[in-house]
């Protein structure tokens, strides 16, 4: 798919953490738009997407001069109190354009020079391993949250064909572990998965977060419903997985391998 890449010069980068991210002082998005274009992405229903004529997933704006802006904002924010940052809430900081543009890498560099109290890096892209050097330097102040919504590649393809394969994400988790970078597997939004899923994750992480559309889309599942996602489940004959209780199936399977203090549900799994 063709992705239209634009540029913008933002006035601010650090936004106040609100709603689902109320545990954070700030959220940080290196880009506007996301070329992974996942079918279930709740950002599709947010103003950033609704006020745009192009389809979500087909455009990305690069935030120019982002590192300089962050340097100033971070130092001002730190002077006022504790700074905890969620990167990113409405884009993937390691989507393909980052390979060349390196906006996220430049922001990380700023945060290594002047560390926030905590940085949560939310991605589904193995490109995050390119920045292991900076992430290591943040020590325990960082956690990488790698989205792995399912262990089944055909399910991943049915819901987010433009996103990286599951195997590549698992490999990235392995590399993060070897490098000693704190990380978690984030099964969110959970998609249909197999009994073998917990055994796949066990050697890679000691922390797993499970979340679904109903708890995690910021509207009790309404935004996801308006995307017509239930139709996709019907087409696949997997309607039983589109249910507010379905997360319990995955959670129970995870409990066979992981202890309770390694398992997190919804917002708790994203907290600093
Ligand atoms: S990677 Fe995240 S932000 Fe990007 S389309 Fe998928 S769900 Fe949305």
What would you note in describing this structure?
With 272 residues, the protein is α/β, with parallel strands linked by helices. The chain has a single domain (4-266), classed as pyruvate-formate lyase- activating enzyme (Alpha-Beta Horseshoe). Helices cover 34% and strands 17% of the residues. It contains twelve helices and eleven strands. An eight-stranded mixed sheet has the order 2-3-6-7-8-9-10-11. Helix 8 (197-201) links the parallel strand 9 and strand 10 (208-210). Helix 2 (66-80) packs parallel to helix 4. The protein binds iron/sulfur cluster (SF4). Residues 34, 36-38, 41, 43, 90-92, 124 line the site of iron/sulfur cluster. Iron/sulfur cluster binds at residues 34, 36-38, 41, 43, 90-92, 124.
């Amino acid at each position: 798919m063709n992705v239209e890449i634009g540029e913008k010069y933002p006035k601010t980068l650090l936004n106040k953490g609100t709603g689902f991210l109320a545990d954070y002082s700030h959220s940080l998005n290196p880009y506007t738009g996301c070329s992974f274009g996942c079918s279930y992405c709740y950002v599709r229903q947010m103003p950033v997407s609704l006020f745009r004529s192009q389809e979500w997933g087909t455009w990305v704006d690069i935030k120019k001069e982002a590192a300089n802006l962050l340097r100033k904002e971070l130092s001002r924010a730190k002077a006022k109190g504790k700074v905890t940052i969620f990167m990113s809430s409405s884009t993937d900081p390691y989507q393909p354009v980052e390979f060349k543009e390196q906006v996220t890498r430049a922001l990380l560099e700023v945060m290594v020079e002047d560390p926030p109290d905590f940085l949560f890096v939310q991605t589904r892209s193995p490109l995050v391993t390119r920045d292991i050097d900076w992430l290591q330097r943040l020590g325990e102040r960082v956690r990488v949250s790698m989205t792995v919504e399912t262990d089944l590649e055909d399910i991943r393809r049915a819901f987010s064909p433009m996103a990286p394969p599951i195997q590549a994400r698992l490999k990235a988790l392995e590399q993060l572990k070897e490098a000693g970078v704190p990380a978690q597997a984030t099964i969110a939004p959970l998609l249909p998965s197999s009994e073998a899923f917990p055994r796949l994750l066990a050697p890679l992480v000691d922390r797993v977060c499970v979340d679904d559309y109903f708890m995690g889309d910021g509207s009790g599942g309404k935004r996801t419903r308006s995307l017509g996602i239930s139709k996709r489940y019907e087409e696949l004959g997997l309607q039983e997985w589109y249910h507010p209780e379905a997360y319990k199936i995955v959670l129970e399977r995870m409990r066979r391998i992981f202890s309770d203090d390694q398992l997190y549900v919804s917002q708790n799994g994203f907290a600093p």
